[in-house]
Specification:
This protein has about 220 residues and is an alpha/beta fold. The chain is about 40% helix and about 20% strand. The longest helix has 14 residues. It is elongated.
Length: about 220
C-alpha cells in the first residue's frame, strides 16, 4: 500500500516515513501544500497522512481541494492544535480522521488500518483468495493451516495483489503502489519480487495463484490457485 506523508518538519517527516516503511507501506514525503496537491492529484495513493500546519496552502485547504478534485483516498490529519474547532475544521474539509501531536505510532498505524478497510465490501479485515489469507493488522499470511513468513515488501506486494484479486495488474501499477517514487533500483524489481512470492506462497503447496499475463502483467487468481 502506498502512503503520502505531508509534513514540513524534517525530523517528524523522517520518523513517519521510517515507521510506516517498517509497517510495510511504500511512503512518499512532501513538505508543502503545493507539492501535496500535485502528488495527491497525480499519483495513486491508498492513504494520506497530512499535517495541518504546512507552507501554504495549509493542510485544511489541501484536503478540501483534493476532495473537490474527486480524490477520495483516506486522509488522516495531524496537528499540534487540539482545539475542538480545529478538529471540526479538518473533518469538514474532508479528512477521515484527526490525530493530535504528540501521538503514539501504534495508534496512527491502527487508525490507518481501520481507514483502509472502512469499505467492508472492498477492504475486509482479513484478505482471502481460496485458502490463502492475509491479515493486514497482524502482518500474517497463511496457506491453509501453514503460516508463511514474508518480508515487509513481499507482504505489501501480496496485499496489493489480494486487494485486486482476479484483476490483471501491470508492472507499472504494481511499482506505483508498492514502491515509492524515489525508487531508483533495477527495472525488473516487480518480476523479482513476484518470483520471491511464488517461492513462498505457491510452489511449496503445489499452487499457481500468481499468474503471468503475457504482455500485460500479473494476476492473482481469486480462488488462490
Amino acid at each position: 500500500m502506498r502512503v503520502l506523508v505531508v509534513e514540513d518538519d524534517v525530523k517528524m517527516a523522517s520518523v513517519l516515513k521510517r515507521g510506516l516503511e517498517v509497517e510495510g507501506y511504500a511512503v512518499d514525503v512532501v513538505a508543502t501544500g503545493e507539492d501535496a496537491l500535485w502528488a495527491g492529484s497525480e499519483l495513486p495513493y491508498d492513504a494520506v497522512v497530512l499535517d495541518a500546519m504546512i507552507p501554504a496552502p495549509d493542510g485544511f485547504d489541501v484536503c478540501r481541494r483534493l476532495r473537490e478534485a474527486g480524490r477520495w483516498m483516506p486522509v488522516i490529519m495531524l496537528t499540534a492544535r487540539d482545539a475542538v474547532e480545529d478538529r471540526v475544521r479538518g473533518l469538514d474539509a474532508g479528512a477521515d480522521d484527526y490525530l493530535a501531536k504528540p501521538f503514539a505510532f501504534a495508534e496512527l498505524f491502527a487508525r490507518l488500518r481501520a481507514l483502509l478497510r472502512r469499505d467492508s465490501s472492498e477492504r475486509p479485515a482479513v484478505l482471502r483468495a481460496g485458502d490463502l489469507a492475509l491479515d493486514p493488522s497482524t502482518k500474517t499470511v497463511s496457506r491453509g493451516d501453514s503460516e508463511v513468513s514474508l518480508s515487509a515488501k513481499e507482504l505489501s506486494l501480496l496485499e496489493f495483489l489480494m486487494r485486486h484479486k482476479g484483476e490483471v495488474l501491470s508492472r507499472t501499477a504494481i511499482l506505483d503502489h508498492v514502491w515509492d517514487f524515489a525508487y531508483d533500483g533495477t527495472s525488473n524489481v516487480v518480476d523479482v519480487y513476484v518470483r520471491y512470492l511464488r517461492e513462498k506462497i505457491d510452489r511449496p503447496y503445489g499452487r499457481h495463484a500468481i499468474e503471468t499475463v503475457r504482455g500485460s502483467g500479473y494476476r492473482l487468481r481469486a480462488d488462490g490457485g
